[in-house]
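Objective 1b: paired records.
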Amino acid sequence: MRLVCGRKPTRRRRDEGRKRRSALLCGPFAVLANMDATMENIEHTLPLYSNNAKKKSKKKVNSEYTYKLSEYETMDFVKLRVSNRYMFTGRRNASRLAWRAILKHMGLQGKMTASQAMKKWENLKKRYKELKYPPPGVQVFPHSWRWYDLMSDAMEGRLAGSAPIIGPLPPGTSDSDFLPDARPRKRSMMGGIGVMGMHCDLDEMDTERATLETERAALEGEREVMGRERMALEREQAGLEREMANLDRERAQLEREKAAVERERGLIEKEKAQVARDRLAVDRDRVLLAEGRAAEENGAEGQSCKTGGQRVVGSLERTERFLKMFEKLVERM
């Protein structure tokens, strides 16, 4: 066998071959090939991830159990929540500890978690608000829901003090006495490409969206009610202003009438003074008449004196009659 050895490539040829290979690798065909490979990896990985996520979510939904409260337990549940609202301060873990205290008082610490109790209370409030403040144009029948009157009393504060006041849990209380709350779901890695994925529960998003829409409709209803009340208050204020104006006019009329009465009283006082002067004149005439009669009795005067005395007596009688009539007229006024 004969071995044929070719010539060794020179340095120049090696450089040219290296350039051609790098051009092929960095060209558009190489980029497209890399993109196709990446997309194939993603397409093979996404179904696996979605199937695993669905299986995990189904397992979690099936494994979660919610205790159903009886009628009496629901009534006690609402009354205890309203009567012990002082424990729900809004601080961290205050709501969870308060619900645990309520569940322990009811003897349900082994049947329901604090998060489930919180969700039960929020669902009751949501249902009450939907019936209390329906969207415009929607007809509802609130009393068809059996807990409407109970929640109405609870939300309006009429159930305060209807249940015993529960103190906070003692310091030595162990978490093992209560059902553990559901753990939050963790983010998972998408296999093969290192992209972080997030669980997105569409049902929960729809529930939250419906809750927000209900609250928005309730706020709109409250705004309309407040607008109507404001218009009613403005009408009442306008009516009060009109009544005040009428009272001012009546007061001015009374002041004018009072001034007229004062003027009439002044005139009456003047007339009374005139009557008093006339009475004094009559008294003087009576004195003169008495003197004339005395002179007549003594025989000091003749027939002429008798005639003059008779005239004086007649004038005095007329004056007395006039004064009596004038006094009656003054009394009538």
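Objective 1b, second protein:
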Amino acid sequence: MAAKRRLVDDLLRGENHQILNRSSRGRPEACLHPVWREKVIRWYFSIVSALDRQHHSPDGPFNRSSVHVTTALLDSYLLALPSELALRYKHDRAAYQLLATTCLLIGMRLTQHDQQRKSQVPSENENSDGNDHPTCQLKRAKTHRDHMDQADHQDVDAGAENGSPSHGRPHASCSSTTMVAIPTAATILQMSAAPKTISESKILTMVREVTGSRAFPRSHVITALDYIRVLTSSTQEENSDVKLTQEVAEEAYRLADISLTDVSLIGCRPSVVASAAITLALFRSHHGSRDMVSLRQDVCATIVGEDPAFQVAVRKVEAKLLAAAHQATHAHAPRQMQMNPPIMHRATAHLIPLEE
């Protein structure tokens, strides 16, 4: 089996597993606060961007992947709660801020863990011997998930005296991502100029609740970024394959970032969101020389094969992404959904922005 096809199939299997474990609740708008959610996602990008500038680690966990994983954690946790409990996070600002901060701390840890695991997977060339070896180790140790709260306690104990994140001992076989210390709860609160209602002890308690939830993922969190990354890094193996240039990929990533703030896309398959973002990015790169229908068919065929229902779903998401991108373009800060937002005064730049 071709290397790229194997990678995409691994992602689709992981995505199907996520769908099966997802709450079957109806409209997410009924239990989520769309305005708070959008503001928190923008805050996620600000925090991750600030950490990226601080650590200067291109292969570290401080990138848009952390934001996508964190948002998935936040949404899945809320949607898995009973309705009466979920409504609390729609009306209690302090509770929502606490949950959002906790999910960011966990999301960065999961992203770092994914990067370490991927760095240990053999390259595509090493797997192109015709044997059907798995190239994406989607299954992770359950103990890593179950004891994440204990790992956070250890980090806090090591760095509590000076308020800085601890620097764990990297394993000899791990990648450079191990060398980057994930901030402790205290560090995140300090960066955020967090209100007094949020404390380090409350975050650590919330970590145990989130990681103990039935909605907490036990394998790699599949996002739209994974599909874009595969189509960018893989070599073109067939004439019908879609291969993204770096410029097209960046536009697709930007559209995937924008998709996070649309509450109506919660529950949408990552493969559908990725296909819509890739199709729009390709259309813009061709400057209209190719029609959307043929581009969409090529993208969908590369990811899932011939599936008319999948193409219909992609077309609907394309319309939503176009509307969201148009709104972002005409907003006061048009590029704030991208990484590296403008640097503002430290005391207010990363304040958890739920005040109305």
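Residues 314 and 344 are 37 Å apart (CA to CA). Residues 3-349 form one domain.
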